[in-house]
Amino acid sequence: MLESIQSMCLHVVFILFTILIYQVFFNERDEERRKVTSKYYLLMLIILVFTMSQPVVYSEIYKYDFKSVAIILSFLYGGKRVGFSSFLVLLLMAYFTDQNLAVLLGNYMVLCLLLLPITRLFHRYGIKGKVTVISLFYSLIPITRGISLLIKGDEQELFFELSSSLIVLATLIAVVHLIENMKEQIEMRQELVRTEKMNVVSQLAASVAHEIRNPMTSVRGFMQLMQKEELTKEQQMYISISIEELDRAQEIINQYLALAKPQTDQYEIIDLTSTIQQSIDVMHSYAILNSIHISQNVEPSLKIEGLKLEIQQVLINIIKNAIEAIKSKGEIKIIAYHDMSGYICIKIKDNGVGMSTDQLKKLGSPYYSTKEKGTGLGLTVCHQIVKQMGGRITIHSELKKGTSFTIKLPSK
């Protein structure tokens, strides 16, 4: 038994070392990990092949390996496409290593189907919740195996089964901690870069916005007076265009000022459910003009602390971006609910043109926009507003498939 335990520890070291190599050398986003061409999927296959080709032999009848770790991690962090692809490789390896293909097919098909809802639940929690979810889920495997061994009366094998299950569970928990801690560090670095950019923009806004806005207001006033004079149609058109451009510049300056003047001292408890509905109502006509349907599934009595006008600004801006991304004949889905970690999630998903990985990395930065006449400040302001309210915005997108914005805000 001692040799078997030592062999299992070797498997643990190999798995942890492989994950560590992935974390150090490959900085993949969540969307990239969900592709079968990802480095993450490749490393899951390496773990799967190693553990199945080097099983821990306890007796002539019983052999153990860590293939369940690779399958579980494939689903949790790679999604169903990577998960089921790993499952197919498992069956292929079982065929070449003379394992019982029918038994593996039945057992692991059930495991994969159970992992689909577990994966969705897993990502709703913080790191402690994730560890709890995976511990409760994995405990089903030794329990079912233990019952089977008790029926057979093999008590010695039962002890080894429990010991090996504890080692596998400890490995899973260690891997979850490694991946989650690295994700947290990456997010912290991104937030630090974003904060530095925001500070630069805020200082610029505070120093020049007022000085620019005052002469622009005077110029606009004189142009409005000129419109009352007898002018040709061409001259009237030129003045109208000039006023429109001045108004656009004025809006950009207002966005700069919104970055420079946080108003956290005026926060109050607001009804988020009604605020979402009002924002949808405001954008309803704009969506109809573009032949776009807005569907919603919003829980009642959602409440947050903040400024109603600011959160409306965030919602309207994102919905407007979604409409413009679709252009015509599409659908926008808006979902809002309490998650398990004490936050309220608002998801705004469209089936528009989507964005590439490079575009997604830059999105939300000042001066970057995917629109021809955009400044990038609208989404920058949205990030700033949500951050001041103790929340965050995450964005997922695929080219030609659409974009999903998720706003998480502390619940009250």
Short account of what is shown:
The chain is α+β, with helices and mostly antiparallel strands and 412 residues long. Helices cover 67% and strands 13% of the residues.
What does this structure look like?
There is one protein chain. The protein is an alpha+beta fold. The chain has three domains: 2-190, Arp2/3 complex 21 kDa subunit ARPC3 (Orthogonal Bundle), CATH 1.10.1760; 196-260; 265-410, 2-Layer Sandwich (Heat Shock Protein 90), CATH 3.30.565.10. It has helices at 2-25, 30-33, 39-53, 67-96, 101-122, 127-138, 140-152, 155-227, 233-260, 272-289, 308-326, 357-362, 377-388; strands spanning 56-57, 63-64, 268-271, 292-298, 303-306, 330-338, 343-350, 392-398, 402-410. The strands form three sheets. It has a five-stranded mixed β-sheet, with helices on one face. Strands 1-2 form a two-stranded antiparallel sheet. A hairpin with a 4-residue loop joins strand 6 (330-338) and strand 7 (343-350). Helix 7 (140-152) runs antiparallel to helix 8 and helix 10 (272-289) packs parallel to helix 11 (308-326). The longest helix has 73 residues, at 155-227. The two termini are 54 Å apart. The mean pLDDT is 81.
